[in-house]
Amino acid sequence: MKERINPIEILLVEDNPGDVRLETEALKEGKIFNRLSVVRDGAEAMEFLRKKGKFVDVETPDLILLDLNLPKKDGREVLAEIKADDDLKRIPVVVLTTSRNEEDVLKSYNLHANAYIVKPLDLEQFINAVRKIEDFWLTVVRLPSK
């Protein structure tokens, strides 16, 4: 009998509607059933993670895909808050951004990002990168139980 795989909760923090659409489609075609929640800015991400306001009943994500360049509160601030919070710091955070800036890479890892991925400009490569994220984090890695 094949072991049943529980759905994975993914939080996508992304303000670009085109990137949200691409990432959503790439994850839908993946091998693993997962649930994807999307928030559009850093302040909303922290409300979601702390289950405030309209997010009071959401599931805690198993994985966060975080853009750095966000309105209201940028991804660096969000990452710092997540990793400083005892209730959130064990959630893996994959920075998925257009920034190739070495300072952003270093700062993200200094803030304990679990991975830093530059979004490819080519559509096919972009979708492939998202699928590889899913494949690694959802089939290879053992995530902590809630």
Molecular structure report:
The two termini are 25 Å apart. β3 (63-66), α3 and β4 (93-97) form a beta-alpha-beta unit. The chain has helices spanning 17-28, 42-49, 75-84, 102-110, 123-140; strands at residues 8-13, 34-39, 63-66, 93-97, 115-118. It is globular, with a radius of gyration of 15 Å. α2 (42-49) packs parallel to α3. Strands 2-1-3-4-5 form a 5-stranded parallel β-sheet, sandwiched between helices. With 146 residues, it is of the alpha/beta class.
Key traits:
146 residues, alpha/beta, Rossmann fold, 5-stranded parallel β-sheet, 5 helices, 39% helix, 17% strand, globular
**Chain-averaged pLDDT:** 85
Helix/strand order: EHEHEHEHEH
Strand content: 15-25%
| Cα-atom radius of gyration | 15 Å
Structural class designation: alpha/beta
Q: What's the oligomerization state?
A: single chain
Q: Sketch the major β-sheet.
A: 5 strands, parallel
Strand order across the largest sheet: 2-1-3-4-5
Name of the level-1 CATH class: Alpha Beta
Number of domains: 1
